Amino acid sequence: MKKLYFFLIAATSLHGLAQTPSSSFSTMSGITPKPELFDDISFGGFDLISANLKYSKDNSLQKVVFSPFKLIPKANYVSDIRINLTQKDEISTFGAAYGFDNTNPYNKWTTRVSDAFAAMPKRVAIREQNDGETDSEYKIYLEGKLRESNNDRVNYFKSLAKNAFSFSVGYNISLFGILGGDEVKDENGLVTNKYSLKGHSISADALYSANQDWMFSAGLAYQHKRKSAVEDQKLVNYYGCNASLSYRAFYLQSDESLLNNADYIKSFFIPSIIVGVSFEYTKADGEEAFFENDIEEQYIITPFLDVKITPSNQFRIGVPIKKYSSVNENQIGLGPFLQYNLTLANKS
Fold first, then answer.
1. What is the pLDDT of residue 200?
2. What CA–CA distance (Å, rounded) separates 262 from 236?
């Protein structure tokens, strides 16, 4: 039997990012706003790379979303295309999304970033050391120019964070772990590895940030999938939606410390604690015998806490509250999870 597994490792250089002010912007949504029902098909934010590892009592997830065309250092119409690679238990999901992000300087659909960059204060170039000026005096002058430059850069990022908007439309295909080999039959004579295709998914999502502290997201999803690889399992339609609200409640560094934080200056990454809540809903349409986990309809509300320390050290704690209607009964349950995240806003 051939089995399909892939393990996601993101090795990135997160220091010394030699970037111009217009080349990188760390989004607030590095961890997917769809934490439960649609976490495998989510495309998250618009960072160059976002890697997630999730652990819960029900399942585990490994995920990488990356935007390969952001590596092209010129304006184009494809820079916001993202690729999704996800392993959720034994299900592998691959997909791509086309989108629009108005904080991306290389997106030809908007001039918002270039306009904000052009509006930055025009500063006098750094001069050489004057005759009679001591080294310590010149050092103080250079430090002042650096603070001035850092302040300009941060104000530029803050202007981008106001009314930041993005949307995307994506497609994913999901495969069972068994890709082929000899047929294996169960006690009823049915082939247990009949299918390699789990299903197809189409999703549409939008994110809006009023400023650097508040973010709202909403989305729709359609899935056509089967519950197992066993012979005679039919594909069933699932219709779903999701929404989330996040607030940056606590800053882990003062404003003065942030101006000396390399990640903040380079990509507007803010060490902070974010509180939020998400809502997800899905409903099956088809023959009850083929519903996944025998569930016809379910709602999930997930209060969560995101702790963002550095781009390579972030995690989320969430407590999904699940209400679902199965073929035979209605239930309410909890499923706490822990999720680690790594993001890279742009190329080094």
1. 97
2. 49
Question: What is the mean pLDDT, run by run of 10 residues, along the chain of 348 residues?
Answer: 36 32 50 78 81 80 87 80 91 93 76 78 87 90 87 81 89 85 75 89 93 91 94 94 94 83 80 93 92 90 90 85 78 67 58
Backbone phi and psi for residue 138, each to the nearest 5 degrees, phi listed first? -70, -35
Which structure tokens are listed for 192? 């247990």
Measured at the CA of 108, the angle between CA 72 and CA 15, to 5 degrees, comes to 40
Tell the residue number behind the tokens 């500063």, with chain if given: 123
Q: Is the pTM of this model over 0.85?
A: no
3-state SS string for the chain: CEECCCCCCCCCCCCCCCCCCCCCCCCCCCCCCCCCCCCCCCCCCCCCEEEEEEEECCCEEEEEEECHHHHCCCCECCCCCEEEEEEECCEEEEEEEEEEECCCCCECCCCHHHHHHHCCCCCCCCCCCCCCCCHHHHHHHHHHHHHHHHHHHHHHHHHHHCCEEEEEEEEEEEECCEEECCCCECCCCCECCCCCEEEEEEEEEEEEECCCCEEEEEEEEEEEECCCCCCCCCCEEEEEEEEEEEEEEEECCCHHHHCCCHHHHHHCCCCEEEEEEEEEEEEEECCHHHCHHHEEEEEEEEEEEEEEEECCEEEEEECCEEEEEECCCEEEEECCEEEEEEEECCCC
In degrees and rounded to multiples of 5, residue 310 shows phi and psi of: -140, 170
User: According to the model, what pLDDT value does residue 327 have?
Assistant: 67
- pLDDT for 234: 92
* Rg of the chain on CA atoms, in Å: 23
Please check whether residue 25 is in contact with residue 267, taking contact to mean a CB–CB distance below 8 angstroms.
yes
The answer to whether the beta carbons of residues 29 and 44 sit under 8 Å apart is: yes
pLDDT for 212 equals 86
Name the one residue in this structure whose structure tokens are 């409640």. 249
Contact between 322 and 337 under an 8 Å Cβ cutoff? The reply is no
What number of other Cβ atoms are within 10 A of residue 46's Cβ? 29
